[in-house]
Design brief:
Elements: E1 2-5, H1 14-19, H2 32-39, H3 49-57, H4 62-71, H5 93-112, H6 116-132, H7 141-148, H8 154-174, H9 179-202, H10 206-213, H11 216-228, H12 233-249, E2 253-257, E3 262-266, E4 269-273, E5 277-281, H13 286-302
Antiparallel strand pairs: 1-5, 2-5, 3-4
Helix pairs in contact: 3-11, 5-6, 5-9, 6-7, 9-10, 9-13, 11-12, 12-13
Length: 303
């Protein structure tokens, strides 16, 4: 039986928020994406804004994940990152949306170690994919590069990014193409899960074990969304591919022990302290199986 202090869920995982920049669209001009979408029949994929928000909220706390990775003494490993060469291997708009999200996941990992020289390469890949998807107008790459160079800007970057993602998601939904925003979020989760799993494989501390196991809710929500939209062949295939991982996670039990919060004065301000606790129960060997399957899934879908 493992115990993990409950986490504060954030609107937008860090891997999404690092990627998405400020929206700089003009309401007076109809760009080529609008023209294209007006000509394309509405997608079969129907995912509500609430579903996407709930999915993002189910992601592990980015701040806690960063601290756990650093506290475990893991050094930066560029070999973990998705190769940025030969972007033409991502052929369809679905492939490109998922890849763009995945590079966002890599940006989250890069930011933990403040490797700005590596970040530029990944921002370039994200920019090229966003141009191909014709959603680059939602990105301010100059600000992204400037803010990514300093960890002191992370709060502002997250706020800007969350607002921008919401603008892009709303726009795609209005055009009947919200499957792209779903796949960006999926790609972000997929790469983040891969990085956590890869690190846990080589350094299975109790914190890393819990970090892997607590993704049960994220995997469940992703699987449900994919299955519900399996009329779309691409989503049906993703649902099939993630099912073995979802089956493994069903063997994980997560219980929340609710306790009365308390109010403390910290630095002259009254702060509510959540004393609730989460218990994670995993059968012998199941986390290792989850780690293996998570790594395999990412390499199958993105390599």
């Amino acid at each position: 039986m493992n115990r993990l202090k409950s986490k504060t869920l954030m609107i937008g995982a860090i891997v999404v928020s690092i990627v998405l920049g400020a929206c700089s669209s003009s309401s007076s001009e109809e760009n080529s994406l609008e023209k294209e979408m007006n000509q394309v029949s509405e997608s079969k994929v129907k995912v509500s804004k609430d579903e996407i928000d709930q999915l993002i909220q189910s992601f592990p706390s980015p701040i806690e994940t960063s601290m756990i990775i650093q506290n475990a003494g893991n050094k930066f490993n560029s070999e973990l990152l998705l190769p940025t060469k030969k972007l033409d291997r991502f052929v369809s708009s679905y492939d490109k949306a998922m890849a763009m999200g995945a590079y966002g996941g890599d940006m989250g990992y890069i930011n933990i170690y403040e490797k700005s020289f590596v970040a530029a390469e990944f921002l370039a890949a994200i920019r090229l994919l966003s141009v191909d998807l014709e959603i680059d107008r939602f990105f301010d790459f100059e600000d992204m590069i400037r803010m990514a160079k300093s960890s002191s800007n992370i709060d502002s970057l997250q706020q800007m990014s969350t607002e921008s993602f919401n603008s892009m998601e709303k726009y795609l939904r209005e055009k009947g193409r919200n499957e792209l925003s779903v796949l960006i979020v999926f790609g972000t989760w997929l790469e983040g899960s891969y990085i956590i799993s890869y690190i846990a494989k080589g350094n299975m501390t109790e914190e890393m074990r819990n970090r892997v196991a607590e993704q049960k809710e994220s995997v469940k929500k992703i699987h449900e969304i994919l299955v519900a939209n399996s009329e779309d062949a691409y989503f049906a295939n993703l649902a099939k591919e993630i099912k073995p991982l979802n089956d493994l996670y069903e063997q994980v039990t997560i219980e929340t022990i609710m306790r009365e919060p308390e109010m403390k004065e910290i630095d002259g301000q009254l702060v509510f302290i959540d004393n609730s606790e989460t218990k994670i129960i995993t059968p012998e060997g199941i986390v290792k199986d989850i780690v293996k399957e998570s790594i395999s899934l990412r390499n199958k879908l993105l390599k």
